[in-house]
Amino acid sequence: MSDRKLTPVDDYLHQVGTQQNWNESRYIDFHDPATGTGGWFRIGMRPNEGHAEMSVSINLPDGRHAFFFERAPIEGNRLIAGGQEWTIGDPYRSCTVSYSGPVLILEDAWVLADPKKAFTTSPREHAEISLEVRTEGLEAVMGSDQEDIDKIFLPGQADWHYQHLCWVKGTVTVGDQTFEVDGRGGKDHSWGPRNWLAKIYLRWLIGTTDDDELGFMLVRGVGPTKRTRSGHVWEKGQFFLVDDFDMKNTYSDTSPYELLRCDLAIRSGDREWTVTGTPEAWEPLRHRAKDENGDPAILRIVKSPTRWTFGDGRLGAGMCEIHDRLSASGVPAGIED
Predict the structure, then answer these.
(1) pTM
(2) In total, how many domains does the chain have?
(3) N or C: which end of the chain has fewer CB within 10 A?
(4) 213-252 tens-digit pLDDT
(5) CA 44, CA 217: separation in Å to the nearest integer?
């Protein structure tokens, strides 16, 4: 593993592998607490299957959600699919993300728990989105040495992956309304065979202080053969690999089991940071596939723009992403963690 060091070329496209489920995906999320605008964008290119998974999601200031997903047809591995386009500027420091196309307008994003209903009953608007994404360079990347990724990834998630904090500015136009964006969040890039059911449950937690001097990206993953708990902290221009963290999550008592609060104590060497997160919205996604035993399974992914309060009193913003396999009665697998 020690020779798997990233170079600037790894911020671009990669040669397509031979596996049917080979995937190259790019993702950003952000939350702007000053305006209440946030969201996330992803393209997952699956050239051997002839399509891309294209997702766009915006949390609107009035509490509504603008969302769209498409299995967009593609030819080869590119940076554009279904109206979403990425351009890479200075590797690991800048890129742009744009989208031009339809979005569903959701008064309550929990309707996405039934995707067919959401897509057939929700009104649609046209969206034009243009975002500039800033990151801190390869020295701030979790995965610049891919040996570190083994601390957070489960077998089957991807062969290669990196992630880092990001700052997002731009404009979001939905219908006849335009919103300015100035948010904080996370960015990642993966390539290799992708299996969404590689995990039983997973927690991906991202936050940055309002003064931009301190941020974290943490992963708690539980799969059929491996458990992980690690991540990184970026503080005043220094990278700290996380040794461990304590996490106490508080959920609503009944379905849909919304995450209400997240308390963290993060450790790296002799350093410790504490932080409490309060989700401000919930957006569920659903993935159906067969599990490791060949049985049908449902993975639910809930994304929540989150307001963080750090132990020294500073405020911050980011995202909580909660993955759970659901029981037959709809109970998330990791509800006790």
Answers:
(1) 0.96
(2) 1
(3) N
(4) 999 999 999 999 999 999 999 999 999 999 999 999 999 9
(5) 21
